[in-house]
Amino acid sequence: MPIAITREVSPSINQCELTFHEREPINYERACEQHRQYVAALRSLGLQVQVLPAEPELPDSVFVEDTALVLDECAVILRPGADSRKPETESIAKALAPYRKLFFIEPPARVDGGDILRVGKKIYVGLSTRSDTNAIEQMQNYLRPFGYEIRGVTVTGCLHLKSAVTQVAENILLINPKWVDKTRFDGMNFIETDPSEPYAANAVLIEDTIIYPIAFPKTQERLKAAGIQIVNVDADELAKAEGAVTCCSLIFKD
């Protein structure tokens, strides 16, 4: 059974890191309820969900994706770009250790999991304010023996690569072409986000279904027209913390 590791929302989430969004109040209780809906959506798609306890001193810690890259062969414990987030990796490493051999990104490299998009044996890493080429070099050294190719991709206008592009089917990417260059993704087909919904490119693909926010109805119509199966969640509170649906889980095979 596939596994998803998640973490409850920190009560200090209103002190989260922000880069592109203006700070606005986050309703903690509503964020927690939306996170519970998200966990329920994961379980509805057949995943065994492990919910880690909240980290009161780590405001962004609900966004577990940024701490690790989990592959079939191993896991890479990342080194988040924001200093306040670096302590998040310790508990994630402990949670993943029973399942995978662990590699660690070493200082001074930095990389957020939100900048990592894996499509088969190709791993695209966003060159953003949170991730750098040093991390790409370390990842390539760790993962080359398993047949993975690491490619850096320039990201502009948004926090992470997966703010701009995610996989929604075997050969289809959902993309905002204003934030990332489509030509960097060889052999893929694309669904473009509606221009009025720039943040609509983030979806979680599980088998042949995506978990997708209700906040982007115009882009959702494009997805439906392409035959994509969708499970909707409400995620607008966590979006205020520059979070999205991929951010809140680490999904891998047992």
Query: Mean pLDDT, as a whole number?
Result: 97
- Whole-number total of structural domains: 1
Q: State the separation between the terminal residues, measured CA to CA.
A: 6 Å
Q: Main sheet?
A: 3 strands, mixed
CATH class: Alpha Beta
Low-pLDDT stretches are: none
Task: Give the C-alpha Rg.
Answer: 17 Å
Task: Please estimate the helix content.
Answer: 10-25%
CATH architecture: 5-stranded Propeller
- Strand residues, percent: 25-35%
Strands in their spatial order, largest beta sheet: 2-1-15
Task: Name a few traits of the molecule.
254 residues; three-stranded mixed sheet; alpha/beta; 15 strands; 6 helices; 21% helix; L-arginine/glycine Amidinotransferase, Chain A; single chain
Question: Layout of helices and strands, plus pairs?
Answer:
Blueprint: E1 3-7, H1 28-44, E2 48-52, E3 68-70, E4 75-77, H2 89-96, E5 102-104, E6 116-119, E7 122-127, H3 133-143, E8 149-154, H4 161-164, E9 165-169, E10 172-175, E11 189-192, E12 204-206, E13 209-213, H5 217-225, E14 229-233, H6 236-239, E15 250-252
Parallel strand pairs: 1-2, 4-5, 7-8, 10-11, 13-14
Antiparallel strand pairs: 1-15, 3-4, 6-7, 9-10, 12-13
Q: How would you explain this protein's 3D organization?
A:
This protein has one domain (3-252): 5-stranded Propeller (L-arginine/glycine Amidinotransferase, Chain A). The longest helix has 17 residues, at 28-44. The strands form five sheets. The chain has a three-stranded mixed sheet with strand order 2-1-15, covered by helices on one side. Strands 3-4-5 form a three-stranded mixed sheet, covered by helices on one side. It is α/β, with parallel strands linked by helices. Helices cover 21% and strands 25% of the residues. The protein has helices at residues 28-44, 89-96, 133-143, 161-164, 217-225, 236-239, and strands at residues 3-7, 48-52, 68-70, 75-77, 102-104, 116-119, 122-127, 149-154, 165-169, 172-175, 189-192, 204-206, 209-213, 229-233, 250-252.
